[in-house]
Design brief:
The complex is a heterotrimer of chains A (321), B (288) and C (259). Chain A contains 12 helices and 2 strands; from the N terminus they run αααααβαααβαααα. With 321 residues, chain A is mainly α. In chain A, helix 2 packs across helix 10. Helices cover 73% and strands 2% of the residues of chain B. A two-stranded antiparallel ribbon of chain B has the order 1-2. In chain B, helix 2 packs parallel to helix 4. Chain B is globular and about 65 Å long. The two termini of chain B are 38 Å apart. Chain C contains 10 helices and 10 strands. Chain C has a domain of 139 residues: P-loop containing nucleotide triphosphate hydrolases (Rossmann fold, 3-Layer(aba) Sandwich), CATH 3.40.50. Helix content of chain C is 36%, strand content 25%. Classes of the chains: A mainly alpha (321), B mainly alpha (288), C alpha/beta (259). Chains A and C meet through helix 6, helix 7 and helix 8 of A and helix 2 and helix 3 of C.
Chain lengths: 321, 288, 259
């Protein structure tokens, strides 16, 4: 696609999203805010799956760890400053990813998928089976973080609209950040690893370190999403770390087509919309969702972003006859 | 811990480990031979348990339920291989993960629609419903011993099949080289179907055997699946004997962990996995 | 032509390299010495253990026994990445590139490996002038200047081999380990590559595994002949040509020499 056209389309999309609160319906504002934070989550996983070639099936762990750190910090220290709490949550989830990655990155392929899943499950058990975070019931957030800098309060996270635009701003920030990272020498190395890791090693790259850095970075960015979730909904449960969530976010990435940040965002929006839509029309929404996933894999390799190409090819094929 | 409780825990570890082996052996065979990662494998365990529940309620006998359930599970396995998994062989792991993830949602929802979300018990067959007195105050249920015995018999049978039969030869060959197997004129598609159905039946049987002890409940497959992953990682993908050793290690680590280190019991098997990953990332039975 | 007349600088020295796979001995007590300004060819029939040998030198395969020194330093235990960093570069028998990337990006990545600054995640890779200039220079040196912006996966086989050379060059390698760089090339491509190799020899040391006998004798300064994992004979081309032992060893395997 032409870069100007693509930029204009992106701008239109952002403006459209920014206009959602004009509907005046809290339901939609909250839903789209959730889509925005899920988009961050999906982009963070795409850094691993789509750009580094690491299929992590335990990404919900870092989302959940950040969400729980919001709840736990607030429970222990009362209302905290956003400017302390957000970095702390990111740091903790990045740290967790660093430790888990240290073990998981020794493995490849199917092993890596299983090991990341197993470690995420371990994190799930920590919150589910121990009293640390309120057990299986989870915890409520006593107070949303304050945004005050000195006596100046730039915005208020208790305000639905402010929260919405904060989520939008964070999504754009993460998008810009990842865009930049992918253009950096570091990002190029990750893509090289995805393409041919063995060759990268024989060119003198210590790929373990790069992969671990990417894993940790993705964990930290997943933490941004988890932080927003906890602040938006005001409660956390162990299910945030469950492997269903890890599967869901992987699905968003695939849905959008791996290796495309815009795709990951689209995947997150479509997935959440489907979840709402199916849950709306039937209580058996999982059955529909499962069937859609199975059909997607069987009939549509490449995800959403591959659709224009497929249509184009189909048309050209028709014209050639 | 005195000797009697040590003995009880040992028997429990064995029983749990052997049951895990039934689930994990199917998983590792399907991984090793077909190169497929199957997240829905835990659902087969769940399906087995629910088959046991439904058929035991209908016939009044767990033995009869198992006798009917095994062919049923084989048929389900063969059907799924034909309808879905046979399309996945040349796809990458990611697509396999997704499709089988979708299957879990479908299976769980169907379970919910057909049977509901309640927890159900399954009666132990009368002739096994007793216990052996170990000391004056401690006894051990015969049914658990029977499970271990069945699993041991199955492990021996599996060993025989893999080492001594034509199917086993195909399995061992297929493990290494698909083209070679095809060059030998072996129908690889049929072999895949048989192996997959076998894997499903083993997992389902594990579910049927476990149903009276654990009762049947929603999402019972997922915890078993993840522990089976740990078993396969520790044992080495594709290695049935690795799976046996690893299942026993996990069985002992988990059972004794709950007694000796109850605070972190949920994490112990994962810590064992972490140690194995540092020591031997390819699993304990893979040649270094 | 003969670089051994002056006191030569020994770049790479392997002593008694042995590699066993289970019971099979793929390499036994192989000695290899590579000096700057020299093309040293590893010759031998298929299955003689040439690739095993080059894999041990590059760090892709740990030797069972033996010692490897680079500029006098023991590098036997270094990984492939570490050996690349000290100055040993290699190409592979089966083309090993980043097929989705352009020729420029393939070589730029190779150049970038010499100055890794992974923490600078906000700088743009394409704005690092030194890496780009290096990449362009190496592409020219390998004779691929016309293909700079092509996606490497669509290049001809011969061009992909040239690309591999360019990538090794971009890593500033002093030792080039080239596994059959002429395999599958047409005669013109092959002749071009021989010119490239001769040019590269002036400042580096090249160890070559090659089947193409004409090319071997056209470029070799020294030849080591391997048979069945053993070192048969080592010496200048004239000596190898005249060697009775080599002729006897090759008599029955004439065909495989010309593959």
């Amino acid at each position: 696609m032409n870069t100007h056209v693509s930029l204009i389309l992106k701008l239109i999309a952002v403006i459209a999203i920014a206009c959602v609160p004009l509907s005046g319906e809290s339901f939609y504002v909250e839903l789209v805010a959730k889509m925005l934070l899920m988009a961050i989550f999906a982009m963070s996983l795409d850094l691993l799956v789509g750009f580094t070639g690491l299929v992590s099936f335990g990404h919900a762990a870092y989302f959940g760890i950040a969400a729980y750190s919001v709840a736990l910090f607030s429970a222990n220290f009362g209302q905290m400053s956003l400017w302390v709490l957000l970095p702390a949550a990111i740091l903790l989830s990045a740290l967790a990813a660093l430790v888990i990655g240290f073990f998981a990155i020794r493995t490849k392929g199917i092993y890596f998928i299983m090991v990341t899943l197993a470690f995420a499950q371990m994190a799930y058990f920590v919150f589910h089976d121990t009293p640390v975070g309120g057990g299986s019931d989870g915890m409520f957030l006593d107070a949303r973080p304050s945004t005050a800098i000195g006596s100046w309060v730039p915005f208020d996270l208790d305000n639905e609209l402010h929260m919405f635009y904060f989520a939008l701003a964070m999504m754009l920030l993460v998008y810009a950040f990842l865009q930049r990272v992918l253009q950096s020498p570091f990002g190029r190395v990750l893509m090289g690893i995805k393409s041919n890791e063995h060759r990268m090693q024989s060119l003198g790259y210590y790929t373990f370190g790069y992969k671990l850095a990417a894993f940790s970075l993705a964990g930290g960015l997943g933490g941004v999403a988890g932080f927003l979730y906890a602040v938006l909904f005001g409660y956390v449960t162990p299910e945030l770390l469950s492997w269903h969530e890890s599967g869901n976010v992987l699905l968003m990435v695939i849905l959008g087509g791996m290796g495309s940040l815009v795709g990951a965002v689209m995947g997150a929006f479509v997935f959440e919309a489907m979840r709402e839509f199916f849950a709306d029309i039937t209580k058996y929404w999982q059955l529909l969702m499962g069937s859609v996933i199975v059909a997607l894999v069987l009939f549509m390799p490449g995800g959403l972003t591959a659709i224009p190409g497929r249509i184009k090819r189909a048309l050209q094929g028709g014209a050639a006859k | 811990m005195d000797f009697a409780s040590f003995l009880i825990q040992t028997l429990n570890s064995l029983q749990y480990g052997l049951l895990l082996f039934l689930v994990a052996s199917g998983l590792t065979l399907v991984f090793g031979i077909m190169g497929i990662i199957n997240l829905a494998h835990g659902s087969f365990y769940m399906i087995g348990a629910y088959i046991a529940f439904v058929l035991t309620s209908a016939t009044g006998s767990l033995m009869l339920a198992i006798a009917l359930g095994i062919p049923l599970a084989l048929a389900i396995g063969a059907f799924l291989e034909w309808a879905l998994f046979s399309h996945l062989y040349k796809r990458d792991h990611l697509e396999q993960v997704l499709l089988t993830f979708g299957l879990i949602l479908i299976f769980e929802q169907l379970r919910s629609i057909l049977i509901g979300d309640d927890v159900h018990g399954v009666a132990i067959p009368a002739f096994l419903d007793m216990s052996i007195q170990l000391t004056e105050v401690m006894s051990y249920p015969v049914y658990r011993l029977a499970i271990s015995a069945v699993c041991i018999v199955l492990a021996i049978a599996l060993y025989y099949v893999i080492q001594r039969t034509r199917l086993g030869m195909m399995i061992r060959a297929g493990n290494d080289d698909r083209t070679m197997v095809e060059a030998l004129g072996i129908n690889i598609n049929m072999m895949y179907r048989v192996v997959f159905a076998l894997g499903v039946a083993l997992a389902a049987l594990a579910g049927m055997l476990a149903a009276p002890i654990s009762s049947v409940y929603p999402n019972m497959g997922s915890s078993v699946l993840i522990i089976s992953f740990v078993v396969v990682v520790i044992g080495g993908i594709g290695s049935v004997w690795g799976a046996l050793v690893a299942a026993l290690i996990v069985g002992f680590a988990d059972t004794f962990g709950k007694v000796l280190l109850p605070e972190i019991s949920g994490m112990i098997v994962y810590l064992v996995m972490a140690v194995v990953l540092l020591w031997r990332p390819e699993g304990i039975l893979k040649k270094a | 032509m003969n670089a051994t007349t002056r006191a030569p600088e020994v770049l790479l020295e392997a002593r008694k390299l042995t590699r066993r796979f289970g019971g099979l001995v793929a390499n036994q007590d192989i000695d290899v010495t590579l000096e700057r300004g020299m093309i040293h060819v590893l010759l031998g029939p298929n299955g003689a253990g040439k690739s095993t040998c080059i894999n041990m030198l590059s760090g892709d395969l740990p030797p069972s026994e033996g010692e490897i020194r680079y500029l006098g330093q023991d590098i036997t235990r270094l990984t492939a990445a570490q050996r690349s960093q000290v100055g040993i570069g290699r190409s592979y028998q089966r083309t090993n590139i980043f097929p989705q990337f352009t020729v420029l990006e393939n070589v730029r990545l190779a150049a970038q490996s010499r100055r890794q600054q992974p923490w600078r995640i906000f700088s743009k890779a394409m704005e690092a002038k030194w890496a780009l200039e290096k990449a362009h220079a190496c592409i020219e040196e390998a004779g691929l200047g016309k293909r700079t912006d092509w996606v490497s996966g669509v290049l001809s086989h011969g061009e992909q081999r040239q690309l591999e050379i360019a990538m090794v060059l971009a890593t500033d390698a002093q030792v080039l380990l080239l596994d059959e760089p002429l395999a599958g090339m047409g005669s013109e491509e092959s002749a071009n590559m021989v010119q490239v190799l001769k040019r590269l020899r002036q400042t580096r040391g090249i160890l070559l595994v090659e089947h193409d006998m004409d090319a071997v004798f056209a470029v070799a300064d020294r030849i080591t002949v391997m048979v069945n994992g053993q070192l048969l004979e080592c010496g200048p081309p004239a000596q190898i040509k005249a060697s009775v032992a080599v002729q006897q060893a090759y008599l029955g395997t004439e065909d495989s020499l010309h593959v």
